[in-house]
Amino acid sequence: MGSEEGAGFEPATGDGPPPGGSGQARAASVRTAFEGLLQIRRLTGEGRDDPEAAPAAWELHRPVRAVALALESSGATPSAVDASGRRVAAGYRVRTGESAGSVRVDWAGPPGSGAAHHEEEALAECAEVLRRLGWTVLLYRGPRRRRYLEVEPPAGVPGVR
User: What is the pLDDT along the chain (161 residues), one digit of tens a residue?
Assistant: First the structure.
């Protein structure tokens, strides 16, 4: 999802157009949004040794957005689609998972992009980023043996089932 004039910042989920604006402006927006997320964690992480080490309630209510922001801030490349919905770039794709509060991350790309050949390494890097930020990440194989991540908040975080 790109940022529209006046619509506020939206992290790239991989199901929207390529992120708009100049590369430097986008990087600054991502950095600011991610620092805001970490500040929310610090302010709401009472009782934890490291308040930045687990998702905050804000993230639990917007897990797709929180995971997409974490991945984009790490420098991972999002996939993208054109106006007709055709995939035009290879990268991560974040969407609602199968269970409540979970997120699915896969590595998608246009035909011929080689996305399937890069998914194991790319998803391992995504999993590492998300684990460092306190998410529980499991790797699965889906249809046609394509890998994907199922991302959930860790057990024991207030507000988690």
Answer: 443 344 578 999 999 988 776 789 999 999 999 999 999 998 887 667 787 788 998 899 999 999 999 999 999 999 999 999 999 999 999 999 999 899 999 999 999 999 999 999 999 999 999 999 999 999 999 888 899 999 999 886 555 44
Whether 4 is in a domain gets the answer no
Q: Could you give the CA distance from residue 148 to residue 113 in angstroms, rounded to a whole number? A: 17
Report angle CA 39, 139, 152 to the nearest 5 degrees: 35
Strand order, beta sheet including 103-108:
91-96, 103-108, 147-152, 136-141
Instruction: Answer whether 125's CB lies under 8 Å from 145's CB.
Output: no
The residues, ordered by sequence, that sit 6+ positions from 132 with a Cβ below 8 Å of its Cβ are none
Residue reference for tokens 């998410």: 135
Question: 66: domain range?
Answer: 23-152
Is residue 139 one of the residues assigned to a domain? Answer: yes
Q: Is residue 81 in some structural domain?
A: yes
Q: What is the total count of domains within the chain?
A: 1
10 falls within a domain: no
CA–CA gap between residue 153 and residue 144 (Å, rounded) = 28
DSSP state of 161: -
